[in-house]
Amino acid sequence: MRIGVLTGGGDCPGLNPAIRGVVYRAFDFGDEVIGFEEGWKGLIEDKKRQLSIKDVEEIINYGGTILYTSRTNPFKEEHGPEKVIETLKKNNIDALIAIGGDDTLSVALKLHKLGVKVVGVPKTMDNDLSQTDYTFGFFTSVEVAVDALNRLRDTAKSHKRIIVLEVMGREAGWVALFTGIAGAADWILIPEEKPDYDKMCEHLKKKYEEKGYALVVVSEGIEIPTETTTEVDEFGHALLQKRGVHEYVADLISKKLGISTRSAIIGHIQRGGPPTVFDRILATRVGVKAVEMVHEGDFGKMAAISGNKVIAVPLEDAAGKQKLVDEEWIKFMKVFEK
Ligand code: F6P
């Protein structure tokens, strides 16, 4: 068989181990693996290269993706789906493995409905995909954020400050929640819960009085008021500076409590670096499973982790169904607001 593989959407640690898992398992079946570059863009523009064991054997600990990635969606490009199908035909691709988050998997589902033999491999550092317990990339990015929080603790203590750390996660609070719990933050703000700033400040004041500093983790997805300004630059352009969530929360705390406050945003630092052992194993398992699904003819599905098993679940049940932090997790988070 000739199996195509691509990585789409935002990168995250674990993509390379997943590609490696695909290539190693494909070798057992005598398959050829063709890696399409830059996600769906590679299939629109026919950019590819063959992958051998030698190409992937050492990439288990590399961040990023050797296949590059993009957010190109063929369904938003003129004749995009036709071009994808044409490239697959031209290269005699029998089946396609699409490694990606919700956008990539939604495209995979639509192509499947057009007759493409496709299997999905879920990934996202946001951990917000339904029908899978976890996605690779998540635990590594939380690990990086926890390390940042530990460093902020040192400086917060020395200067007797309150420091706010903003983490990624889109509309889902998983990254903030896990970072805050694992890094012993004093308050966590997630998009799934309406912020009670009075309660937060009251609590931070108490913690500050007890230990001389406090830490807050905030998810990028929380809503803050949009700012308008009448200021203009030297060319007369409005100086509409978008304030980060972390700056908004830090200002609010310092105004309410009159305590020296600082803030930081970890941003894309969270998306780089070697995957943790957990993510390496998870990514490898789903990569291996995807090839097995191809050989079982299990198309239109993705390789998901359920308990300790990797199972095939219909893309239809996962695509477009964001998994948000639920009541049970919020209750757990509250245990640490003491
Ligand atoms: O979905 C993953 C993610 O890292 C989000 O947490 C974040 O909002 C977004 O991607 C950033 O995307 P980009 O790399 O395009 O700036």
Task: Give me a quick take on this structure.
This protein is of the alpha/beta class.
Account of the protein in words:
Helix 8 links the parallel strand 7 (187-189) and strand 8 (214-219). The mean pLDDT is 96. This protein has two domains: 2-136 and 275-318, Rossmann fold (3-Layer(aba) Sandwich); 141-271, Rossmann fold (3-Layer(aba) Sandwich), CATH 3.40.50.460. 41% of the residues lie in helices and 17% in strands. The strands form two sheets. A seven-stranded mixed β-sheet has the order 3-2-1-4-5-10-11, with helices on both faces. It has a four-stranded parallel β-sheet with strand order 7-8-6-9, with helices on both faces. The chain is an alpha/beta fold. Bound molecules: 6-O-phosphono-beta-D-fructofuranose. 6-O-phosphono-beta-D-fructofuranose (F6P) is lined by residues 10, 101, 124-126, 168-170, 220, 271.
Q: What structural keywords apply?
A:
single chain; 338 residues; alpha/beta; Rossmann fold; 12 helices; elongated; binds 6-O-phosphono-beta-D-fructofuranose
Indicate the topology.
Layout: E1 2-7, H1 15-29, E2 32-36, H2 40-44, E3 48-51, H3 53-56, H4 80-90, E4 95-100, H5 102-113, E5 118-122, H6 138-159, E6 162-167, H7 174-182, E7 187-189, H8 197-211, E8 214-219, H9 245-257, E9 261-265, H10 277-296, E10 301-306, E11 309-314, H11 315-318, H12 327-334
Helix pairs in contact: 1-10, 6-7
The chain binds 6-O-phosphono-beta-D-fructofuranose.
